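Subject: Re: docking follow-up (S-adenosylmethionine)

Dear J.,

Thanks for your patience while I sorted out the input files. As discussed at Tuesday's group meeting, I've set up the holo structure prediction with S-adenosylmethionine included as the bound ligand rather than trying to dock it afterwards. The sequence and the ligand SMILES I used are pasted below, so you can double-check that they match what you have on your end before we go further.
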Amino acid sequence: MGSHEQTKAQYDEFGGAYHAKRDDPSRSFYNTFVDVPAMTALLEGAVAGRRVLDLGCGSGIPAGRMASWGAGVKGVDISDTMVEIARREQPGIDFVVGDAADLPYGDGEFDLVVSSLVMHYFDDLAPLFGEVSRVLRPGGGLLFSFHHPMMEVIEGRELEGGGVEYLAAEYFHNDPYQFGVAPGMELTAYHHSFEDVFAALAAAGFRVDLLQEPRPAPESRRYNKQIYDQISRYPSFCIIGARL
Ligand SMILES: C[S@@+](CC[C@H](N)C(=O)[O-])C[C@H]1O[C@@H](n2cnc3c(N)ncnc32)[C@H](O)[C@@H]1O
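The structure tokens for the complex came back this morning:
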């Protein structure tokens, strides 16, 4: 099974559980307290009246927010289950099933492509950024979040007597790794160094103008002290903004 088929199969099977988890802040800590607040701060006042594509839209959570801020939003996702949930949750938005590497849209249709936590499912970034570049108008923008490359190579080891020691593994590679998203839901993602990501963006015609490494707000600590303590000191997700 190819990498995209495997991702699709997992979201098709476990999409309902993934969406349900998003309602529980302690189980969706990384989304609720890292990705969503950081993306909200960047997008809330910036999307009104703009044609926005939510790429890898999942169950429609980012698309629904952007529509409430006045954007003209469409959403695409590779998983039928996720698109079914998105249509149910956000009935006013046009969601379609499709692969981000082969988008079902015309050239130059969008002012902005927004994509939360999707890039790391791609082993090869060229088809992804190439398609995003094609569907954007000249001068259009891309804002996306993904697993921070350092998070992918930092391993926590429980110490006898309590505490955790963090060790760094190899960084310069493009290897796959597995991670759990919900009970039984094991996904494969691909490591990319920052140099690879920036080179792939440049090859597709993008100029990077923003890099953020968001951290959780102190109020979130009560929802999951262990994750809070770790990702306040070590990177978890990052966000890149780029323009054609
Ligand atoms: C972690 S979820 C994030 C969903 C949504 N962006 C959010 O933040 O709520 C990742 C989503 O990316 C979708 N996805 C993964 N690979 C994709 C691909 N090649 N094309 C389109 N969607 C993809 C998955 O089906 C899943 O819904």
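A couple of observations from a first look. Residues 3-21 form the longest helix (19 residues). The two ends are 33 Å apart (CA to CA).

Let me know if you'd like me to rerun anything.

Best regards,
T.
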